[in-house]
Amino acid sequence: MITTSGVTLRYGKRTLFEEVTIKFVPGNCYGLIGANGAGKSTFLKILSGEIEPQQGKVEIDKNARMSVLKQNHFEFDEKIVIETVIMGNKRLYQVMKEKEAIYSKTDFTEEDGLRASELEAEFAEMNGWEAEAEAATLLNNLGIPVELHHKQLKELNENEKVRVLLAQALFGNPDILLMDEPTNGLDLETVTWLENFLADFKNLAIVVSHDRHFLDAVCTHIADIDFGKIQLYTGNYSFWYQASQLALKQRQEQNKKAEEKKKELEEFIARFSANVAKSRQATARKKMIEKLNIEEIKPSNRRYPYVAFKPERELGDQVLEIENLSATHSDGYYFKEVTLKLTRKDKVAVLSKDSLAITTFFNILSGKQPPASGTYKWGITTNVGYFPQDNSKYFSNPDLNLVDWLRQYSTEKDETFIRSFLGRMLFSGEEGLKKSTVLSGGERVRCMLSKLMLQNPNVLILDNPTNHLDMESIISLNNGLKDFEGVLLLSSHDHELLQTVCNRVIEITPNGILDKLMTLDEYLESEVVREQRNMLYGTVTI
């Protein structure tokens, strides 16, 4: 159990937390949510002891072992991969190292023998003899093959390091698990494995994530940070979001009678409980949902941008034809001999185990780089809007404020018109005069979306547009893409976005593509697809 009492933290004049008193109990998984800058990561650091609050205290059960997902990818560079994982259980690792030091002595004494005996007993009690096998299983499940287990961490790429540190956090069944963005760098299959792991986790877990599908799959409670306070809600993210929107609507309808409001909320809870009961992972938690208290539901104070793509012209029947398209890198192919055709009804989720393969594919189709071989041809009615994953070159001019930055992409130059587009993306008033070179990652993405909306495209190519976005912006983008009446090619780590928007899945591999007219969930659950993927990758997928 973790209990905070009156926790307060200020940075200068800014109060991040004010008198926060909250209790997290074992058996639950809490999703810690809040707008960008609300203090989600900081609060995890307070709980872990990395940051001391200025007032108040954090109390943790004396014998509880806490595990924290590390964000420093260089901390263990000199360590062996499997040893790094075992270090997740600090006491077990200390015992192992002390044993090794004793047994390596040339002048082994009777006192050493007694100490070694004590350590062996403690080692056995902690299931130390199973440690390496458990660590190897975790690594395999997270996509780290056996041939990397005994390499130094510095020999791995960034995505592989992320997975090793995740295995370290999960190792040894910790009593308390704190995880900040655990799905970063994971493909959809590995995220699914992690969802299943946490759904079965019997102890206390607290996670920060922008992945709505992940929060829905693993969370029993939502801890919402707003105005320096943290409010606990029973249920997953979808319940919190839908309930808060319903409460907001009711607050706006001031004349609605109390009895009508109560009935509407009760009907909503009943529908939600029924849906939870059908979930493969949430059946055991249905009793929690049934205890939902309508009195705890409050309107959200979040601000949501407005995202809408309105094509300037209707698409014709000829959209895109690709024939034998290939792209290479120094060691081989990103993809080879890709042949496919897009129709005017297609909204395509583009997947790959190699994110560079997707970026290369999109760069070729948008004319940013040539293919190694093959051809592609856009229809004459198409107006293609491209969102690149790396947008840094668009924000290199230090002389441009946001109004001038967006004006350069608009045929209408009137400042009122330009500010209306910036306002939709939450840049209002003086914020429009902010220099474009000082924007955060999320602010840049919102500017790029404004640029795309001005273009009025009927084809969108979006390469990980959800990177750096907060939950509110992701939801707004999700809604905008659902309403988009054009063709879409989309890559994203956001499961919910791909599932609710796309009707076709294309997966790029070095040995060919898989092209299926189905939703993402249908694709991931199909045994036929699984067999075909195994053949293309030449490996067993998770």
Write the layout of secondary structure elements.
Elements: E1 2-11, E2 14-24, E3 29-33, H1 40-48, E4 55-60, E5 66-68, H2 81-86, H3 90-103, H4 110-125, H5 131-141, H6 158-170, E6 176-180, H7 188-199, E7 204-208, H8 212-218, E8 221-226, E9 229-234, H9 237-252, H10 258-278, H11 286-290, E10 320-329, E11 332-342, E12 347-351, H12 355-365, E13 373-378, E14 384-387, H13 402-407, H14 415-424, H15 441-455, E15 459-463, H16 471-483, E16 487-491, H17 495-501, E17 504-509, E18 512-516, H18 520-525, H19 527-537
Parallel strand pairs: 3-7, 3-8, 5-6, 6-7, 12-16, 12-17, 14-15, 15-16
Antiparallel strand pairs: 1-2, 1-4, 8-9, 10-11, 10-13, 17-18
Helix pairs in contact: 3-4, 9-10, 16-17
Structural class: alpha/beta
Write the CATH fold name of the domain at 320-394 and 456-537: Rossmann fold
Please, what is the CATH homologous superfamily of the domain at 320-394 and 456-537? Answer: P-loop containing nucleotide triphosphate hydrolases
Q: First CA to last CA: what distance?
A: 33 Å
Specify the overall morphology.
globular
The largest beta-sheet arranges its strands as 5-6-7-3-8-9
Which CATH top level class of the domain at 320-394 and 456-537 fits? Alpha Beta
| Rg from Cα | 26 Å
CATH-level-2 architecture of the domain at 320-394 and 456-537: 3-Layer(aba) Sandwich
How many alpha or pi helices?
A: 19
Strand tally, please?
Answer: 18
Main sheet record: 6 strands, mixed
Which ranges are low-confidence, i.e. pLDDT below 50, for 5 or more consecutive residues? Answer: 277-286
Strand content: 15-25%
The percent of residues in helical segments reads 25-40%
pLDDT averaged over residues: 88
